[in-house]
Amino acid sequence: MEVKLDKRYPLDVEPARAWMVLQDVRAVAGCMPGAAITEQVDDTHYKGTVKVKVGPANAAFGGDIEVLALDPAAMKLQLLGKGADRSGSSASMNLTAHVEAGDTAATSVLVGEAAVIVNGKFAQFGGRMMSQVSDMLLAQFADNFRAAAAALPAPQAAPPVASAAAASGAPALSPAPVRELNALGLAWGLVKNWCAGMFGRRT
Amino acid sequence: MTTQLISVKINGKTVQKAVEPRQLLVHFLREDCHLTGAHIGCETSHCGACTVDIDGRSVKGCTHLAVQCDGSEVLTVEGLAGLAPGGGMLHAVQEAFYKEHGLQCGFCTPGMLVRAYRFLQENPNPSEAEVRAGMSGNLCRCTGYQNIVKAVLHAAARLREPQAQPA
Amino acid sequence: MNAPTDKGLERIAALAGIGEPRLRKEDARFIQGKGNYVDDIKLPGMLHMDIVRSPLAHARIKRIDKSAALAIPGVHAVLTADDLKPLKLHWMPTLAGDVAAVLADLKVHFQMQEVAIVVADDRYIAADAVEAVQVEYEELPVVIDPYTALAPGAPVLRDDLAGKTEGVHGKRTHPNHIFTWEAGDKAAADAAFARAPVTVAERIVYPRVHPCPLETCGCVASFDPVRGELTTYMTSQAPHVVRTVVSLLSGIPESKVRIVSPDIGGGFGNKVGVYPGYVCAIVASIVLGRPVKWIEDRIENISTTAFARDYHMDGELAATPDGRILGLRVQVLADHGAFDACADPTKYPAGLFHICTGSYDIAAAHCSVKGVYTNKAPGGVAYRCSFRVTEAVYLIERLVDILAQKLNIDKAEIRARNFIRKEQFPYTSAFGFEYDSGDHPTALKKVLAACDYAGLRAEQAAKRADPHCPTLMGIGLVTFTEVVGAGPSKMCDILGVGMFDSCEIRIHPTGSAIARMGTISQGQGHQTTYAQIIATELGIPSEVIQVEEGDTSTAPYGLGTYGSRSTPVAGAAIAMAARKIHAKARKIAAHLLEVGEGDLDWEIDRFKLKGDDARFKTMKDIAWAAYNRLPPGLEPGLEAVHYYDPPNFTFPFGVYLCVVDIDRGTGETQVRRFYALDDCGTRINPMIIEGQIHGGLTEGYAVAMGQQMPFDAQGNLLGNTLMDYFLPTAVETPHWETDHTVTPSPHHPIGAKGVAESPHVGSIPTFTSAVVDAFAHLGVTHMTLPHSAYRVWQQLKKSGVNL
């Protein structure tokens, strides 16, 4: 089943630092709960894992990530991720993300569009929750991303030199520990969100 | 797997057994206690074929653990006749289902009977709409419910008769 | 015979024979929780089997790792296709002349397909083991939309059929093509359309649904290695056929195979075929030398066992300006899933779909049905369909409504103009069916009067004129004829076995009897109704007639119960067997009374001397004498067997009328009234008939108003639990009103036709007719099933209807 995502997340860091995180595939993976890069095959190919737990059911997706485009001028990243779980779910994602200037010089917006196809067990049994779970997941991602960007030293008006930074392996963004994405926790978040929504507030 | 000793009163008789914590009540009844009246028709607690009566409430045995029944009183369809007012062979709900042709394949019937029993304890003089709502947790594919509703109303009338002592 | 006297009426009542609303013999065990369903059966040493299933709809199997599963304490075996290969059992023949995988070999073809089995001490350990089996898949592109299955370059599903351009039913024009079957006269139909002043055409889709009986499928297989005998308790609607199939597959002679269908918790066509679970349980039992139980869960049942329908029908009618139908043409695209396991008589890959000229005298007709493979579970014929008659009746009744709407002729009136007239029976349709009897005009008049049809139309007009009316009112009408009682063996066979059926009756010395038949009740009440037939034929009270079915070691060979065939075929066999006994009884009575056979009259329960009521012998007297005082030349005993090969199908018919009120804001449809008149010929037990009709109408309501099996683009089945699959509760289910006429079947020994599928066949188009009628004044001619509130709401928006 296919889920289309179209998200904008305001960040309270300037575009330069946001882009520093975005162009670092390992760092980006580190912001996604349950995800990690396990190997870099070459400049544009990585291997990674995502662990998901829906109540008692576990899935460990292992797969490949290909960076299709990395455009420092436009601050844009495009990647294709594909993974399968040993008990038979599979997922693929075509993601385009970029950083835009925010309202002020000190803010920016992380914009992402993705088409996600989930197949197998998780599609069959998780289908009804798919877009809400994705929303929650990405909200957590955005929080982590914001924190990772804010943790970087503020650049001294120097333009982001994306590929050089990647090549030199600096700055060292400490990858977030791989926590299993606990969808019961997500589910509680969903319920809270829904209740809040009932009273006109969205968290 | 570790087991836990439970003591359950089933149809008036105390049963003590060591069960795995994950064992469902319906499996405990059917396999350990050899009471195969309660049936399994789904795994999402929709169909009600597994309905039993625990401490005075209708419960779906498929989503209830055996260990949760420790110290409880459980009534299954096999125990209904024992509750017949005046010590008859069959409880009024059983006789009513027979007389009103409230069953065909019989698979939903034990769940229907145990639920009808409890429903009529809760609401001894129901309207047809109340019967339909009260029995809505039990699915049937054969009868279209019409004769089941007649049967429950028939049993209600029987149970309200002066000589019938409520169980 | 004179009208019975009071004493005679008493004697008739004492028999509780044909026509009596006799209470059911079966009930005693069911109301006390003492039924004997397959999952109730426990054998010493029994193990439990569970199945590892594919999460993907189309994929290559790269690797299966059993090691973690085998390491779990209590696991006895893990089997895959490789283990079945030496036995040549990894594939099995289907009822449709195709093969189906038992366990997936190299490839999986639909989501939830069986890939491996585990056998363990109990069902919990088996479930643990299923989770522990690791299977690696390589995804393949899927075919989900049947319209794309035959596109050039479409993904090929059946590698095992590569190069096979000749199918069982003729040429295969594409790797995903199964068959194209035709009936009727294309030239005549085309000519009728060419000259017709009026034509209508519509695509009528009958979506995939599932019968979902309350009890899922399962078996307990028990191979006795000492005796070399296999016994299998199975949820089977056709135990003898299964025995033959199992014998052929396993090599064990039929004499050493025993299939027992005990109590079955609803069949509805779901329990006809041989599923991989049965085969695997049997193999496991043989391999392990212990009984093996397999009971599927609800998700498995909905996802993998025989689905129903999935017919995409392009139908057309040609007519005169006053609505007289001149011709019918229909082309069908049939989605059969990944294997053709459609349970049809061999010669009819589209079942009895060609009953689609319905109750109408249509001179020229042609139909063609094209079957295709898709990445979905196999099946097609199930769910009270009488072999695709649900689809056929849906088609013709929708087209007649659409024609009526185009010509602005009332839908009852247009039907009356086209009915086969009573004097035309037996009537041969343009498709070659010989309808045995019918009287549609009488039935229609009765229903229209009972429902005050004119009043309803007036009310509808008033509501349409009222801008404040909160509902849209619709009136649905269907006048169906269906065809059941498969069937004459020259036309109908299952795997080569003619579709006759059988009965043996044995009367004991003290006057009670035992009878066994080749059918098997799944709730239809055969133990009660069959005894009633014998009671009337032989004058023995039905109360003392024991009826048994379902054990292939004792019951005579029969083809089972589905397609409403029990009463037309086995019921006839019962009457014929009884008449053989009756003939012998007459001889014995004559001998006892020392008169000639011709001097005796049969009256209710006795042979009496013509003109002398005082000299008689009851069947009870005769039974005793049959064991000790026989005329010379006659052997002892009082029993008979009859195998009945029916000369024809039977054609029950009915008229259904439905009134709905649709909420303009929510799209929710309230069924205000549903009036069902059925004519099934002679009525054996009115109480049981009425119960069957309630049940069939309710299943029809479920199909019409909510059941769906949605697949996404990757072939994931999204609604396979009861969270989503609509089974109505007592709250939604409407109140049913039933009525009847009696037009016996002239070729049936007791004039009975069979009835239990008619309410399902007839009600579904009636609901559509009513819902569409609610929108007809807005130009809507057809709406696709199901008519859930959301879908009806979408139509409300499309038609510009606001609160």
Question: Secondary structure elements and their pairing?
Answer:
The complex is a heterotrimer of chains A (203), B (167) and C (803).
Chain A: E1 2-11, H1 15-22, H2 25-31, E2 35-40, E3 45-54, E4 57-71, E5 76-85, E6 89-101, E7 108-120, H3 121-126, H4 130-151, H5 162-168, E8 181-182, H6 183-198
Parallel strand pairs in A: 3-8
Antiparallel strand pairs in A: 1-7, 2-3, 3-4, 4-5, 5-6, 6-7
Chain B: E1 4-10, E2 13-19, H1 25-32, E3 51-54, E4 57-60, E5 73-75, H2 92-99, H3 109-122, H4 128-134, H5 146-160
Parallel strand pairs in B: 1-5
Antiparallel strand pairs in B: 1-2, 3-4, 3-5
Chain C: H1 6-15, H2 27-30, E1 47-53, E2 59-65, H3 67-70, E3 75-80, H4 81-84, E4 91-93, E5 99-101, E6 107-108, E7 114-120, H5 123-132, E8 134-139, H6 146-149, E9 166-167, E10 170-171, E11 177-184, H7 186-195, E12 198-206, E13 218-224, E14 229-234, H8 239-250, E15 257-260, H9 276-288, E16 292-295, H10 298-304, E17 307-308, E18 311-319, E19 325-335, E20 364-372, E21 379-380, H11 389-407, H12 411-418, E22 427-428, E23 434-435, H13 440-451, H14 453-465, E24 471-481, E25 493-494, E26 497-498, E27 501-507, E28 513-517, H15 526-538, E29 545-549, H16 566-593, E30 600-603, E31 606-609, E32 612-618, H17 619-625, E33 639-644, E34 653-663, E35 669-679, H18 686-705, E36 737-740, H19 758-775, H20 789-798
Parallel strand pairs in C: 1-16, 14-15, 17-21, 19-20, 28-29, 35-36
Antiparallel strand pairs in C: 1-7, 2-6, 2-8, 3-7, 4-5, 9-10, 11-20, 12-18, 13-14, 13-16, 18-19, 22-23, 24-34, 25-26, 27-28, 27-33, 30-31, 31-32, 34-35
Helix pairs in contact in C: 11-19, 13-14, 15-16, 16-17, 18-19
Structure description:
The complex is a heterotrimer of chains A (203), B (167) and C (803). Chain A has 203 residues and is an alpha+beta fold. Chain A has one domain: START domain (Alpha-D-Glucose-1,6-Bisphosphate, Chain A, domain 4, 2-Layer Sandwich), CATH 3.30.530.20. Chain A has helices at 15-22, 25-31, 121-126, 130-151, 162-168, 183-198; strands at 2-11, 35-40, 45-54, 57-71, 76-85, 89-101, 108-120, 181-182. In chain A, strand 6 and strand 7 (108-120) form a beta hairpin. The two termini of chain A are 27 Å apart. Mean pLDDT of chain A is 77; it is low at 160-179. Helices cover 31% and strands 15% of the residues of chain B. Chain B has helices at 25-32, 92-99, 109-122, 128-134, 146-160; strands at 4-10, 13-19, 51-54, 57-60, 73-75. Chain B has a five-stranded mixed sheet, sandwiched between helices. In chain B, helix 2 (92-99) crosses helix 5. The longest helix of chain B is centred in the last third of the chain and has 15 residues, at 146-160. The model of chain B has no long low-confidence stretch (mean pLDDT 95). Chain C is of the alpha+beta class. A seven-stranded mixed sheet of chain C has the order 3-7-1-16-13-14-15, sandwiched between helices. A five-stranded mixed sheet of chain C has the order 11-20-19-18-12, sandwiched between helices. In chain C, a hairpin with a 2-residue loop joins strand 30 (600-603) and strand 31. Chains in contact: A-C, B-C.
